[in-house]
Write a structure and sequence with these properties.
The protein is of the alpha/beta class and 499 residues long. It contains 20 helices and 18 strands. It has an eight-stranded mixed β-sheet with strand order 3-5-4-6-7-8-9-10, with helices on both faces. The protein has a six-stranded parallel β-sheet with strand order 11-14-15-16-17-18.
């Protein structure tokens, strides 16, 4: 039997720690990389950051805290032995709200969560669930057996809920808590989101075994990356973007607090790279400049990637400060090369800004990657071609292609609600189903996904044939495949659009 810190470990994913006894609490989550074939093949898994944040907070309040990280497990059945051996009084299924895939409420992950609720019931636990999907559909989880669902941001509500259970006080009236009473759904008032993020303890990075993550990263990428977050929320109004947990408020940790966590992670886990999972990194004026200063003052050297907006990147010396602090890669929501579609999305950016930000970032040696979205209502084939030509002209270092996905609580969802069919969630992240009526049918957008990638790879290969730096013979040779493949996919796409 393996042991960790002198205590029995019942799974390679379980790290056993204890604080002063209050409620014996097992904290876990329901995102399983193996159940999402696309993400498992991509082989760049991250630990459940939001789960570790909640674990740290409960531990600081005196609870006996155990963390079972399901991310690399085979499936929800892995929870069974942990429950049998730890006998927790409370099971908290706390999904990582910094993982954008949990916001999409993938069907396979909902099924996993419901199975875990059933196991918790069999083990005699009180069960608390917090996730984007549970916030949108609390009754699904409550009717499966959860005692309570915490709506939105969970920390304060979870602390109050466990305290009420400890003392026997009434708990159904707590803000952000949903429950069933005589089969009737009860949802109480919503509490304000946390603003003083520096008051939270640093995530419980000591309660997780990162070596399986390191092994998978090194095998697929040749380096090891861990995840952090410096902010919560996003103030922008893209009408397809859901914010079920942190809302439209934007609150930031101080650069000093972030540096404390970087130092801790480096000491505990020695990552080669960091991924800042913020919706928008460094929006607060002067933040990235101060961040660079703090890292320099403390002698902290990092390599990292972020998500940002092209308009923000063009402000004053933002790019220079980011580069100085270690930025290597930025993903921007380019979405479309058609200004008409960007305006329809309420994106608030211009195609010209995408071009300018890409140019400036590349000049500084930063990798630039585009999120692209197709199938937005009213998009024409000319709009699609504008997006593909933008990609070919700017040649980002990577692209992520998706189709418009109606998330509950968004203006976009309300716009297409009447057109939604029985399928309301993707099964996994490679599903790419169109869940409303768009210009073309679902088969067209699945074909378009492949065609866009072929056009991109063809352009990449042709540039390498012309000697574009850095020259990579393998990418140049790829022209032999992508030139004919693109022609074939283009013909198939044309035929699909006419069917």
């Amino acid at each position: 039997m393996d042991t960790i810190s002198g205590c029995p470990s019942w799974s390679s994913n379980l790290v056993y720690r204890s604080a002063e006894p209050m409620a014996r609490t097992l904290i876990t989550h329901s995102y399983f990389y193996r159940l999402d074939p696309k993400q498992w093949k991509d082989a760049r898994p991250y630990p459940p950051l939001g789960t570790l944040q909640v674990a740290a907070l409960l531990r600081s309040k005196g609870h006996t805290v155990h963390v079972f990280d399901t991310a690399l497990s085979e499936g929800p059945a892995a929870l069974g032995p942990v429950l049998r051996n730890l006998h927790p009084e409370v099971l908290v299924i706390q999904d990582d709200s910094f993982n954008y895939l949990t916001k999409m409420c993938l069907g396979v992950m909902r099924d996993a969560a419901l199975q875990m609720i059933g196991m918790g019931l069999d083990a005699g636990c009180r069960i608390v669930v917090n996730s984007s999907d549970a916030t949108d559909h609390p009754e699904v989880y409550l009717r499966a057996g959860a005692t309570a669902v915490i709506m939105g941001e969970s920390e304060e509500a979870l602390v109050e809920l466990l305290a009420a259970w400890e003392t026997g006080n009434a708990w159904r009236m707590l803000a952000n808590v949903a429950s069933l009473d005589d089969a009737q759904l009860i949802i109480r008032s919503k509490r304000p989101v946390l603003r003083a993020l520096d008051d939270l303890p640093l995530p419980a990075w000591d309660l997780i075994d990162t070596e399986p993550y390191r092994a998978r990263w090194n095998a697929s990428q040749g380096y090891f990356s861990l995840n952090m977050a410096t902010t919560r929320g996003c103030p922008f109004k893209c009408n397809w973007c859901a914010k079920p947990i942190y809302g439209n408020r934007y609150n930031s940790r101080s650069p000093e607090h972030v540096a404390d966590e970087i130092a801790m992670i480096q000491e505990l886990h020695r990552p080669d790279h960091l991924w800042f999972a913020d919706d928008i990194f460094g929006l607060k004026p002067g933040w990235v400049q101060r961040f660079a200063q703090v890292l320099e003052q403390r002698g902290l050297r990092i390599r990292y990637k972020i998500q940002s907006r092209v308009d923000l990147l063009l402000e004053s010396d933002t790019i220079d400060a980011l580069v100085r602090s270690g930025l290597e890669e930025v993903w921007v929501g380019a979405e479309s090369g058609s200004q008409r579609i960007l305006d329809a999305m309420d994106k608030g950016t211009r195609v010209e800004q995408i071009s300018e930000a890409t140019r400036l970032l590349k000049q500084k040696g930063v990798r630039v990657c585009f999120f692209l979205q197709f199938g937005y209502p009213g998009e024409t084939e000319a709009d699609v071609e504008s997006t593909i030509r933008m990609v070919e002209d700017l040649m980002p270092d990577d692209i992520g292609v998706s189709v418009s996905y109606p998330l509950p609580g968004t203006p976009f969802f309300e716009r297409v609600r009447a057109e939604l069919g029985a399928k309301s969630n993707w099964t996994d992240s490679d599903d790419l189903a169109m869940m409303f009526r768009s210009t073309h049918g679902p088969a067209y957008y699945k074909r378009l996904h492949r065609y866009v990638h072929n056009r991109y790879r063809r352009r990449q290969a042709l540039l390498h044939l012309k000697g574009a730096p850095p020259f990579r013979p393998g990418k140049a040779i790829a022209a032999l495949y992508y030139v004919p493949a693109t022609m074939i996919e283009g013909l198939r796409l044309h035929l699909t659009s006419r069917s």
